[in-house]
Amino acid sequence: MKWGDSKRDFDMILAIWPAYEPYSGAWFMEELAVNRNGVPRWRERRIPSPTGGVRVDRYTDGNIAASESARVNAELAVDLKQKPMEEHLRRSFQLKASKALQAKERLRSEEALMLAEARRRNATLPAPRADELILKPKAEKYRAALAAALAEFPYVTGIRIGAPSARTAMIKSYKGVWDVIDGVLSKRGALLIERSKIASGFGLNPTDHWGEVKAEIRRILLPRANKLLQLASVRRLLDEALARGEKVLVCNCVVFWYEEQGQLGWQVKTTGGSQTEDKSTLWAEGTIVSANHGRLVILPFIKENGEHVKGHTRNAPKDGPAKPRHPSQHVEIPFTRLNDDLMIGLFGELPYE
């Protein structure tokens, strides 16, 4: 097939994003394409080959893929501004592109934070020696390769062995016995092994529903986040924010919240997951109206029709009703969003600078 032979080659592209594919260990670019019904959908990106053919947009280096994505997205944003179309339609496409990219970035940064904490929690766990491993008889020949693979992630329950391109994998039973997975590793198996780097670090099962696993990790992380308030580096960050009049700082799934009533001072809350799941666009200039003392902060967002919705506080479904504030104590607060990489650094107890 030559480039231009397919109708999809002429579709309007709003944005691109590099998606890591564990099976191949590569990043494949996705594109947000507008179909004939005018609906943007993510799909695999194809580009012209040097000979005029068609190839997938594939990268072996994640940093290069991210850099290329940023470059192309800037060009696509300019192209969209210059395309002849009704202004309300242009604004709708801009909003949908922003929403889609924001959802991808929030997912990436959230899982990066979870992986960093999973590794920190298991940092003192020694890598097992080859002679310590318990294997099924048929897996015995992989003993040395398994020990080498577990050196970096000794806590996982599933792992690939051999070269990065290897399709051989092993899994550990609840009794701690390792066995080789029969047959060639599937894409689903490779994904579960990748998820084990996060889930197993918290004692969770990577084969369970991934959304539920991450919801449980958010709950586990909250006490850890509370400990951040004891760090001198974090206190400095918060003192500087308060001096600027900033009382709500959002960093990934963690919210630093200053409570004047009762002289409580700084508290840690967590963001509700709804905006991540429904891919709503964060309204960075919006405010949070707090009518209760709920531990979840739902950030302000923009609906697909352009309506701006203010944020609010509430409890999680199993927490019971949040303690209400007296009407005279209702507060409406703007928020400041911190760089997500900062939270990963703070969880690693790196000094704030």
- Roughly how many Å is the radius of gyration? 24 Å
Q: The biggest beta sheet, please?
A: 8 strands, mixed
Q: Low-confidence runs (pLDDT<50, min 5 residues)? A: 274-279, 349-353
Strand order in space, largest sheet: 19-14-18-15-12-11-10-20
Instruction: Look at the helices and sheets and give the structural class.
Output: alpha+beta
Count of individual beta strands? 20
Query: Can you give the helix content as a percent range?
Result: 25-40%
Q: Can you give the mean pLDDT?
A: 84
Shape: flat
Describe the SSE topology.
Blueprint lengths: L11 E10 L4 E9 L5 E5 L1 E3 L5 E3 L1 E2 L2 H21 L4 H35 L21 H7 L8 E3 L8 E4 L5 E3 L6 H13 L10 H18 L4 H12 L4 E4 L2 E6 L5 E7 L2 H4 L3 E2 L4 E4 L5 E3 L2 E2 L5 E2 L1 E4 L16 E4 L1 E2 L2 H8 L6
Helix pairs in contact: 2-8
Give the structure's gist in a few sentences:
With 353 residues, the chain is an alpha+beta fold. The longest helix is centred in the N-terminal third of the chain and has 35 residues, at 87-121.
Report on the architecture of this protein.
With 353 residues, this protein is α+β, with helices and mostly antiparallel strands. The chain is built from eight helices and 20 strands. The protein has helices at 62-82, 87-121, 143-149, 187-199, 210-227, 232-243, 274-277, 340-347; strands at residues 12-21, 26-34, 40-44, 46-48, 54-56, 58-59, 158-160, 169-172, 178-180, 248-251, 254-259, 265-271, 281-282, 287-290, 296-298, 301-302, 308-309, 311-314, 331-334, 336-337. The strands form five sheets. It has an eight-stranded mixed sheet. Strands 1, 2, 3 and 6 form a four-stranded antiparallel sheet that branches. The chain is flat. Mean pLDDT is 84; it is low at 274-279 and 349-353.
